[in-house]
Amino acid sequence: MKILVTGGLGFIGSHTVVELQDKGFEVVVIDDCSNSSEKVLEGITSITGKMPLFEKIDLKEKSKVEAFFKKYQDIEGVIHFAASKAVGESVEKPLLYYENNIGTLVYLLKELSKKNTSNFIFSSSCTVYGQADKMPISETAPVKPAESPYGNTKQIGEEIIRDTCAVTQGLNAIALRYFNPMGAHPSGHIGELPIGVPQNLVPFITQTGVGLREQLSVFGDDYPTEDGTCIRDYIYVVDLAKAHVQALQRLLEGKNEENYEVFNLGTGKGSSVLEVIHSFERVSGKKLNYKIVDRRPGDVVSAYADTKKANEVLGWKAEYTLDEAMKSAWDWEQKIRG
């Protein structure tokens, strides 16, 4: 069974390709390599023993999307990761985010709508909840006005999928709202490879630990939390990848109750920025050089998942602890700098 993974050379995408191949799926990857590298294909192949099919395509080019689906008419499911994802950058470059995250989604759905049946997994985000009224955040929590253009593209993306599913009988979709992915594959062959300065906390921590960055900036210690720093739900990337396979199988086996469903993916436990730093210090045996600076625009105070629906309806549960995930991230960082 052939599955398309867009953004399949990215951080979460590459780990999902591995899990799909391990379950016997044939995978076709689309990636424009704007925030990834073709070398990731070698890492995937080292783990699974099978090179996925690869098409270097910019999904913003509608004619290339159309040509792809003419070439591959036997695609049974699509997992859509390809998107720009940095909150801070989206505040500075909103149009880039709207073009890259919304236009590409529309082109994919247009092609899928032409098929008799199609199955679509959307990489969404807990950013759709904004600053939620209560913790943990369940799927029934209201979608708040987005705190950033990035968050807004995920809200709009979900609305586009929902509206399309409402009038497209053969289209089945699941939006996976995930919290904060981290870590690397235990094999050490793939992991997070940010180009330039990392926008995510964990790779910035590990790059600082390995000496590539001089110092980590902690954005604000005056939030209304126990230690004054922001709280997030950090989820191990392999756990997250497995959830995508589980969601896809739910659609392929016709177990979905509606043709558009939403699940939160997290551990259900919130960790503050300082707790994540302390986790790194525990697993590495190193003191991290960090300083407290001003708050960053677009950051919510706290966000962690209510995982009941994912656990009970999807049949998925995060297994790894923060320290275990952090150790994999640190091992990966040392390997790629070695």
TrEMBL record:
Belongs to the NAD(P)-dependent epimerase/dehydratase family. The keyword NAD applies. Gene3D superfamilies: NAD(P)-binding Rossmann-like Domain, UDP-galactose 4-epimerase, domain 1. This is UDP-glucose 4-epimerase. InterPro entries: NAD(P)-bd_dom (IPR016040), NAD(P)-bd_dom_sf (IPR036291), UDP_G4E (IPR005886). It catalyses: UDP-alpha-D-glucose = UDP-alpha-D-galactose. Its EC number is 5.1.3.2.
